[in-house]
Structure formats: C-alpha cells, structure tokens
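Why this split exists: single-chain examples teach little about how molecules sit against one another. For that reason, every record in the complexes split bundles all components of an assembly together and asks for one structure covering all of them. Below is a record exactly as it appears in the raw files.
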Amino acid sequence: MTNDSPLKAFLVILLTALVCSSFVSAAVVILRPIQMNNKMIERSRNIIKLTGLVEEGQTPAEEEMLELYQGMDVRILDIDQADYNPDLDPLTFDARRAASNPELSVDIPVNQDLADLGRRSRYAPIYMVPDEEGKLDRLILPVHGAGMWSTIYGYIALESDLNTIAAVTFYEQNETPGLGDQILRPEWQAQWEGRRLYDDEGQLRFAISHGKVEPGSATWLYQVDALTGATVTADAVTSIIHYWFGPNGYKDFLQKLRELNGEVG
Amino acid sequence: MTRKDSFIKPLLDENPITLHILGICSALAITNSLTSSLIMSVSLTTVLVMTNVAISLIRKHLPSSVRLIVQITIIASAVTVIDQILTAYLPDAAKTLSVYVALIVTNCIVLGRAEACAMKHGVVTSILDALGNGLGYSLILIVVAVIRELLGNGSLMGQSILKLVHEGGWYEPNAMMMLPPSAFFIIGFLIWGIRTWKPVQKEAADFKPVPLPDREKR
C-alpha cells in the first residue's frame, strides 16, 4: 500500500486518533481524583480564612482545613427565591459553570447589572459557621463582578447580625499590578472588618471611599479607604457589593435569615 | 548538519524566539514570574520531545495529504496530558499559567520542529533537536523572567531580593515590568544584542526603498 492511497490516509488517521485518545482519556481518568481534591483544598483555603476559626496569618494543614470545612453548614441558595435548594450538592456545585448553563442561570437586565455580569447563576453556595450552641456565628457569601481588566472573585463573611462585615477575601483577580491588585493586600482587607453594609433604615451604604476615611466620621461605619491610583478597581468593588447585597442579590435572603434570629432553618 | 549541531544550534544561533520569532505569545504572557517561566519551559520542552519522537517514529507512514492533521492531533494530545498533570500535581502553578499551557498546541515552535525536523530525521536526531529548541526557548524565557520579576516585583521565584518600599524597603518596583509590553521590549533588545554580536543572523532587506525623484528633473 503506498503512502498516497486514500485507504492508507484513512487508516493512519484512525490509528492516530485511537492511540491519542486513549492516552488523553487515561490521563484524565487517572488524575481526576487528585484534581478534585485540589479543588476542594483550594476552595476551603479561601473560605477557612473567613471563618474566624483559625488564627490570623496561620495556614492550617490540609487535613485540619478539610475538617474545619466539613464542620461548616454548606448549602446551595436559590438567590431569587431567597431560599435553599436541597437538590443541588454543595460539594460539587460549580457556580461558574452554572452561569453558562441556561437552566441554572438568569440574564441580568442591563439597568440592574451593577457588577457587569451579563448572566449569573441562579444558585450560590453559601457557608454558615455555627457557634457552640449551633446558632449562626458567621455567614460567608460568594461575590464576583467586573473589575478593570477581568472578573474579580471574592467571599464576604458577615457577623451574626448579618450586617457587620467580619472579613473579606478576593481570591481571583487580574487588576493592574501594583495599583488595582492592592485589593489583595491583607492590611487593606483588614479595614473591612467591622464596617456595615446597611444603615438603620436598611439602606445599602457600604462603599470604597474616594479619599481617606476619618475614624469616627459619619461615613466611617460604612466606608473603607480608597486605593491610591486605582479608582476603577475601587469603584468596581463598590459596585460588586452593591449588586450582591442589593435587591437582586442576597438582600431578601439576609432579611429572611434575620427574622429567623440566628436559627438557620 | 551533525547530531551535535541539531542540539547546539537552536540554543543561540537558531534560537526559536530570537531568530525565528516563534512562541512569542507565551513569552510575553507568563514571563512576569520566574516560577511560571520555568514550569512553562519544562512543559514546552517535554511536549516538544514527546511529539518529535512520535512523529519521527511514524514519519515514513504519514501520507503527505493528512500529515498536518496527524501532527496536530499528536501535539494536542501531548499538551492535554501535560496540562492534566500540571493541574493535578502543581495546582497553584497551573492556575497562574491558565490557558497558556493549553496554548502550547498553537505554539509554532512545536509544529515547526515537527515539520522541519521530525518529518525528515531519525528518532535520536529528533530528540536532540527537540531538546535544543526547548532549551533555546527556555533560555530566553528565563532571561526575560529574571529581568521582569526582579525589576517589577523585587523578587525571584517569589523570594524577595530587593526590598520593596511598601514593605519598608528602598526599592520602588517598576510596575510596567509586570505588564506584557515590557517583555516585548526586552525580547526586542535581546534580538538587537544577539544580532549585533552575530551579524550572520541579520536578515536581508525584503525590498529596496524606492528612491525619491530627483528634484531638478521635476
């Protein structure tokens, strides 16, 4: 059979495809458990920092971290219904993948789309940290939205009053190095601690200020210092918070949870 | 060309980045950190060796009408396997490298070596050629990454070398070095330097500029 016969071309392609696909499938199947484990560790590493269960600056060992992670009450929240969805498995649910699945996501009307998301998942995994009596101690909620160059992803932990910020973390971003990426600086994130989202009338007041915030001033309760030279990133973070804690985000759910007074239902 | 040549030449004389200007995409994107550059270098060299060996082995049975399809299939499979291994064993590095590992498929160095070398030579020469080109690529990546990470972040492989101002030191980092255009400048300077040192690499002009019409005759 010469190299130029169509049959030979067909056979060569068929064999190459078979051999290559078996290599690829073998790699995927053998490595999947390790990759899943990495994903769990990665996710719990981001969240554990916000639980207040580990000391500041400490990174617990992987086993300890997974144990803490499993001690939390993780649920899938139906954001628009402000209720839990018991049918989805919080351990495997992937909100990012869900955002591109028409059945699991919704289009956000342009006039409501403060965080420039376009589409978002209907559901979000939420993490509840119980205190000794089993009451809600902290609630950790995922947020994301458009930054200057790409999407910023983070988590916000609220105290049991569901208004005071306990901690914040941004775990994925691509802001301008040296300017916008200061949102990763622990000193800056530490300022969020103790700030409030809503005022007594229930108005969402939280913002990244455009200047230095004087301690004790009227806005101090609700504002975090600006980031020098990163106005776009700072405004983007404010918008992200305003979207996710506004009426199209978690606001209704927080209201509902507040009425339950610490019982998580 | 001897076997030794096929290993030595791509290091500098026929370097894939500075002479052929291939593989620029990843060289611009990931060289802001020395660690990512090293991982990228190892990944690309491994892929090159794997594909060159595979293609060299079957080169006599490749109908010329479908050879590119077969080459790309092999390259894509090798890259997918490497990508999977990285996400399993080096998850943090895989995250910073993100799409650039998968984009090795479209890295012209790999297909270029398959066509230029593996299709014509035996396995041993192909391996040496792959190693040579992989190391040539790595060399440039490492040089660029050392400059960028040191000047842009005062560190090498994440270890602080020049103490930064906002950490209480003296060094004000050059933020531009963290952005892709700086790699463009550095590679440009490298090409200029190498071609001044080895003028044989200079290319002949593609065309002669048309002389302006003589003023007096007009």
